[in-house]
Amino acid sequence: MKRVLSGALTIVAATSMLAACSSNNTNTAQPNTTTTPAPAANQEKVKLTIGSWRTEDVDAYAKIIAEFKKSNPNIDLEFKPTKNTEYNTALNTALQSGSGPDIIHLRPYAAGAALADAGYLEPLDNIKGMSVFSKDTLLAATGSNGKVYGVPTVFSSTQVFYNKKIFQKYNLQEPKTFDDLIKIADTLKKNKVTPFAFGSKEGWILSLTQGALGPSVYGTDFVKKILSGDANFKSPEFVNSMKQMKDLTPYFPDNYVGISMDDMRNMFVTEQAAMMIMGDWEYAVMKKTNPDLQMDVFPVPPVKADGKPTVTTWVDGSFAVNAKSAHKQEALKFMEFLTTKEFGTLAVNELQKPSTIPGIAAKDPLVAKISKYADTISTPYAAVVYFGSGNPTTKATLENSLQGMYLNKLTPEQVTDDVQKSADTWFKPKK
C-alpha cells in the first residue's frame, strides 16, 4: 500500500481548502485500539475546547466526541470552529495572549511548524499509538527540531469529478491519457456543454489545479529533482506544465477569470459543467446541495501513454495540544484517541475523507474509491508541502503569476521565472 501526501501553508494563509506530504513508505504498525479505562465516579469533570476552521464539521465532531466520552466520561469537549478565513488570525492572537483553545486544529506543514517553533504546542512523540503513522505523514505536524506536535487526522486528495449522466449521454469513458481527456472536452464543447467548471478568481484554485495536472506532464519524480537541485522551476518540464494550464482555456467557462469556487461548485451541481478538478472535501458539500447528482471521479491521466495516472494528496490538518492548557493531561487523552481505529472509522465515514490511519475502509463507494487512489497512485501537492515558505510564499507567487497568465499579462515562461525567483529567496536544494 502506498500513501503519498503533501501540504504546506504559511502562518498567514487563510483559505477554505488548506488545510496541506509525501509518503512512499507504508507504516505497518497497527492502530491503537485500546481505550482508557472509565474513571472513578468521583473523578473531577473537566471541559476542553477544540479550535478549528472546519465550520462544516460540527455534526461530525459531535459524533466523534460522543465516542471519546464513552471511555472518558469525565472529559467534556466543545468543538468551537471559527470561519476559515478568520481562523489563523484569531488563533494567533489568542496564543500570543497566553490563551487559546485546549486542543488546536493545526494547518498542516509550515503553519503548524511555525506554531510549534514559537513554543505554543506540546510535543506528542510519546503519545500511545503514534507509531501507526509513517514519518512522512507526521511531517505535516513536525517542528524544525524534529519533534511531532500534532496527530494527523485525514488526507485531502485532488482528482477529477465528473457527471456520470452527461458522460453516458455522449458515450464518454474515463480517459486513459491526457489526449483522451482533451477529446472528451472537445465532444462536450461541440454539444454546448461546458467541459470544466473552472475559475481563476481565487488563487488557491490555480495552485491546486496545477498541482493536480502538473505530474501528468513532468511525472512523479520531477519534484524530487527540484528538491535535490537537479532541476528547477525554469526547467522545460515545469514550463510545459504552465503551457498545459494555458492550453486548457478553450474548455473553461466564459468569463472564467471572474469565476469563484462557489460559482464553480454551482456550475457542477446544476449540471452546467461536466467535469471539475477539485479536492475531495467538495464531495460531501455537492452531495448535500444536489442529492440527485450522479457524480464519480477519475485520476488525472498521463500525457504519455506509458505514464501513470495520479491524484494529488496531502494531510488536511492535525490536532495539537496548547502548551498553556490548564488540562493538558486530559487533552493528551484525546490525542491518544485520535490514533485509534475507532476514530479513523468515524473520520472516514463522517468527514467523508481518507483516513490517515492505514486500513480504514469507507462505507461510501466514492469515498472508498478516492481513498484507494490516495493509497496507490498519489503524488505530493508540491507547492503546499515543499514551497509554502518565503514572503510572499512561493506558492502564493505561483498563484498570482498564474492569474496574470490567464489575464494575458504573463507568458508561461514568465510565470516560471517568477516562481523560481521566489524560491531563490529562501529555498536551498539538498543533495
From TrEMBL:
Gene3D superfamilies xref list: Periplasmic binding protein-like II
Name a Pfam family for this protein.
SBP_bac_1
Report which superkingdom the organism of origin falls in: Bacteria
Give the signal peptide as a residue range, or say none if absent. 1-19
Task: Tell whether GTP-binding is among the UniProt keywords.
Answer: no
An example GO CC term for this entry is: ATP-binding cassette (ABC) transporter complex, substrate-binding subunit-containing
Q: In its keyword annotation, does this UniProt entry include Transport?
A: yes
Q: Which GO terms describe its molecular function?
A: maltose binding
Q: Which GO terms describe its biological process?
A: maltodextrin transmembrane transport; maltose transport
This protein's UniProt keywords: Signal, Transport
* Family per record: Belongs to the bacterial solute-binding protein 1 family.
Name of this protein: Extracellular solute-binding protein
